[in-house]
Structures are given as structure tokens and as C-alpha cells.
Amino acid sequence: MRISDISKLAWGQIKRRKVVTGLCMVGISIGCAAIIVALSIGDSAQSYSEREMNSRLKMDEITVTPNSGVSVRGGGAKASKTGENINTGKLTRQKLEIIKGLKHVTAAAPFQELGYAQMLTIDNKVNDIQIVGTDLDLLTQYGNTFKQGGPSDQPGTIILSYGATLGLMDLEMQKTLFEQLNSDPYNTKLMEQFNSLNGLSAAMYQQQIELQAEDFNSETSRTYRSSTFRVVGVLNKPKGTSDEMIQSDKKVYVSLETAVRLTEELHLNVGTVGEEGIFNTVTVKVDKTENLTKVEGLVKRLTLNASTNLFQKKELEKTFAMLKRVALGIGVFILIIASISIIVAMTMSTHQRRRQIGIMKVLGANMGQIRNMFITESALLGLLGGMVGIGFSYLIVSGINKLVGGSIGGAEMGGSLVILIPLSTIPVGIIFAILTGVLSGIYPAISASRINALTAIKRD
Amino acid sequence: MLRVEKISHTFKSGGELTPVLHDINFQVKQGEMVALLGSSGSGKSTMLNLMAGLMKPTEGHIYIADQDIVKMSENKLAVFRRKNIGFIFQAYELIASLTVRENVELPLVFQSVSASARKKQSLALLEAVGIPDKAEQFPSQLSGGQQQRVSIARSLITEPSIIFADEPTGNLDTKTEDEIINILVDLNKNMKTTFIIVTHEHEVAQHMQRIFTLRDGYMVTEKEDPRSEN
User: Fold this and answer.
1) Among A5, A369, A377, A457, which would you mutate to test the B interface (most chain B Cβ atoms within 10 Å of its Cβ)?
2) Domain span at A237
């Protein structure tokens, strides 16, 4: 018996027996929709979380630091011969060049953290900032874009992060506010005033600034002030972040030469800064997250410490994998319940069609052919139920999106949580629906094939 | 063509045994048209069911085209029936969800014959039984006589060596009964198909070449060429 004929006969029955078809389809479509919606929610939530994590935690970057656990006597015979000052655990320019040459590395630059200082404008406003020494030309390779200006080769120039332009306050006002908040920390009015001032943006481009730092190590606390710098560039706020989130990210980027100068001027105590060709932090950017572990391993072989945020991603994946399994389990459970409705409906249908089955047997249909007809019918019911289920799932997802739309995430955070149905979940739902149909159809099909032709014809 | 040897059959109902056929023996040649005549309860329908392989006799053998159908398994019998046996039922037994043409084609569907070949054969047979214009209608749209013509066309589609007809005119009025009998007689003449017609009507049996009469499970008479008497 040809598949096309079996399908045609089965389709004829499906069209004719609308109640049975309806009953079966309702069950299967609900189960199928449950699976698709559950998987889609899991998938969308995971993508959203990963997106958020990527934008905040820089998942494609490796932070390389010196390996302080290694003896400084290292270097070996080869190093001695070249005469270079190579300490095995130190992060040297030579190692930086090796890292830059590694496969999958798109950028590698030192990010020397010099410490914290106060930024002073000419109109006597202040902001607490972190000073970072780096190759200013490479800033854009780390996902930074310039809101204004750009790097300059001229000495005495700096670049500000977006956060550093927020919350500049008059020195006296800042002092008064801090004192008031210290004495009355639960004063919401004061807190609101402080927050609103913290969120105010100042036009810093081409402004002259000075930096000042206090030396707490000396017996009498001393304040050192730097020479004057000009702001030649202001960075944009990173994608997916709001002003509130970026308020604490206040950085001043200076060239490595300026970093050495600042270390001296402000008496900053930052270890290797100042030593030519030795860095305390290098940030390595990798082309794809998948290559992160590989590059990390190679960097570690240079006797350096390397750390990534990958473990957080793995943890997140683990959590979502578990959630997806639970969701899938719920969907499968619903399908099992749905399969009971198919078994009942198909068995009922078998009983009603005993006479027809009897006639077919008399006309030459064997048990296998009868069985195949019924299984095809139930598989078709599964397919139809699955297709309706897909429609249901789109309706449910659009309903959920309308319900929670905008409440999680937001436009300024690079998009809110929108549940999308991944195309890959549709075949999964359909396969589950067909399988449910086939498995539920087995008992009625066997029961139909065993009907005695003569009894079936004579019973009416 | 058909050889029935020492057939006896007993029905079991609860613990009770009811013998319905006793030592039945007869033969039908290829191309013959015979009647199995008997009143209600004579055992003629049981005999038909046994010959069609729908039941197994308590004793005896039935040979169709030299093959003992009593020994065949259900699946083997299904294949055998598909190729060698045609059926005409009293209540037509057409499938309501299929069109007239699809009903006629149904036995070929079980033989995996292509749709185009099936269509060609079914239309030719509908022409032969006089309802070529009803091919795409559904059984419910036809009269009893027309439905029986569809049933006849269906029985012939596999070109079987033997056709069993169970009271083929039982549900029809006299005029239609004559038309159906004439169709069967013509088909027998033209196609040389063997017909075994079970009936309780003497008028129907008179059109056959031979009549086997059953009474209370016994074969009581065998009449040669009753048509010559008319």
C-alpha cells in the first residue's frame, strides 16, 4: 500500500470525524505550545542574560596580570644571553608583543591602574576618578566609541570616560553634602539631592583639569597636585548601560608616558608603573568567546595570570540548561496527558469504524495495512495539533511580551527582554507532537487490525 | 475452480454446540455462475463465509484455484482474497467518505497499484455497470440499485477468479433486481468470471447455470441449467 494512499485515506477520516479530530488536536496543540513556549522563554531569557553579561562583563576579554607567585630569579639561560631584564612572572613588553601575535587576539594593550585621585576643573568642581594608563589609540578596539574628540599625540592630554563627566560638584558643596549625609544617612531628601547631582552631566571636552591625590602613607597626610591637562576626548557610555549604572565608572585615560609622569607628580604608589616596559595589567581582546579559553591557556604558558568572566557564563548556562529541562519536562507531561485524549478518541473512533475496517479486510487489507492506516491517521493528528500548537505558542508569547514588555530591561539598556520563538524550537515541538500522535495511535491501531472482519460486518 | 470437500461446521455458543453444515461437497468450474439457494437458517451464508475464508470450518477443505484456503493464515488469506476473490454484499458496504470511483478502486489500493492505473480501470468498470457519470459522487447520493452497481464494479476491479455475492438483490425492488441480475449475467458471459450467488429467491436462482439447494445444513439438491426450463 502506497504512503500517498495511506495518507489520503487517513486524511479523509480526519476531515470526516471532526469531533475526534478536534478532541485530539486540542490536547496535542496545548502540549506542543507548552513545549515551544517553555523553550522559547528559556532561550530568550538566556540570550538576554548573556547579552547583558557580555555588555557589562566583557566576555571576550582576558585580564592579564603578573604572576607574583613566581620567583624573580627566573629568566633562564636564554634570557641571560639576550641580556634582557626578564623576570619569569613579570608582565613585560616582550610578553605583550608575544600575546599580540597570538592567533584569535584582536587587541592587547596595557591598562595600568594608577589608583584614585580627584579631578579638578578650572571652575573648582571636583570628581573622584580612577587613573588608567594605556595606549590611547587602542581604546576604540575595546568596544569604546568617542562621544567627542579622540586620542592626541600631544603631551598633557587626557581622555575621560562618560561616567567621569557625571556628578561634578563644587568642592564646598560636596564637602557639605558628605557631612550632612554622614550625620543623617537616612535623610531621603538629602539622598535624592545627592543622586540628582551625581547624575548631572558636565561639558568637559577641551576643558583644562588638574588631578590631586592625598598621600596617606606619610606621617602627615599630604596632598599632591598634578600639572594641567586638557580633555581631548570623551567616551560614549557603553551600550546597554544607563546613566545610573555608569555613574560609578569614572576613569581618566592617559598615555603610558603621562602615567609615569603622574605617578611622580602625585606620588602614586603603584608598583611597577614607572619601570620601562613593565606593566601591571594588560587587557587582551579575543575575536570570539569560544576562543577565550584557548588564548587564556596560551597566555598562562607565559607564566602570567590570566582571568576571564567565562565562568559566569558557564554558571548561567548551567542554570538555564536546568530551567530548560524543567520546562521541557512540563511540556512533555502535558503531551502525555494529551496522548490519553488521543488514545481515548482513537479507540472510540476504532469502535465506530469496525464495520468499515471489516469491509476493508474482506476487500484484501491485511493487519499491517489497517495498522498503518490508523498510525498514519494519529500521526497526522499529531502534525495538525503541532501546527495549531505553533499558532498557539505565537499567541501566548505575544501575550506574554505585551504583559511584561518593557518591565524587564529598557531601551537605554540596549533593549528589554522580548521573548522570541527560535526557529529551532518549532521542529522540536512538531516532532514531539507527531511522536505523541504515533505513540498514542499504536494501541488503537493494533486493536483495529485485530478486528474480525466477519464479526465487524455482521454486528449491525 | 472451487472445490468444497466434506465441509461441516458447528457453532459454539456458551457450552452449547449448534451444527449448521453437514458434509457439504460440490465443485464449481471456471466461468460458471451458480446459486446457493436456501431459506433463512439453511446455512447458505455460513457456507459463503467459509468459501470466502472469513471463517474456518470445523471439518473439511475448500480449494480455490487449487489452494486450500482452510490452511491459510489470516494475512495469507488477506493476500489471497485480494488477488482471487471479489465480494458483492447485500447492503453494498460502500465507504461513505470515499467517492464512487475511490470505492471501486479500494481493493487496488491494498495492492499498491498506481493512482493512474486505478482510475483507468475503475472508470472502465463504472462504464460497464452503467454508471460512468456517477464516478465523483458519494455513495449517499446514489440509489440502492446504483450503489449495488458500484459494489459490483468494486468486486471486479482486481479481476478475481471468483466472485461471491451475498443476497445481491436482497435490498432492491423487483425492477432494479432484474437490472442487477442482468448485469451479473452479462459480466459472467463477457468476462468469464465465476460467480457464486447466495440467495433465498428462486427467481434470482433461475438465472444461474446451476443451483445448489441447502436445507437445515444439508445439500439437498443440485440442479443443472435451470435457465433451459424457462
Assistant:
1) A5
2) 61-68+87-166+201-287
